[in-house]
Design a protein that fits this description.
With 76 residues, this protein is of the alpha+beta class. It has two helices and two strands; from the N terminus they run αβαβ. It has one domain.
């Protein structure tokens, strides 16, 4: 399915031969629509990593070193 906003303006220079030009992208709207439908149906759960407030420094280190996935929550 296409949508009017599934297009983007582009400028093509003559620096490359036509056979060297590749268009990469598309399909994000369909992926977003499916993800929202799955979340609405309760089949998609967010990734949440919890840390006790006393371990806030550990949580910050994990964020700084990209050792987390999803959201980080400090719990009292």
């Amino acid at each position: 399915m296409t949508h009017p906003t599934d297009t983007a303006p582009a400028t093509v220079s003559r620096a490359a031969a036509p056979e060297q030009i590749h268009v990469i992208g598309g399909g994000l709207r369909a992926l977003e629509t499916r993800a929202l439908a799955e979340a609405t149906a309760g089949r998609l759960r967010p990734a949440v990593q919890r840390f006790p407030l006393a371990e806030a420094a550990t949580a910050h280190r994990a964020l700084e070193t990209r050792g987390t996935m999803g959201k980080v929550v400090l719990e009292p």
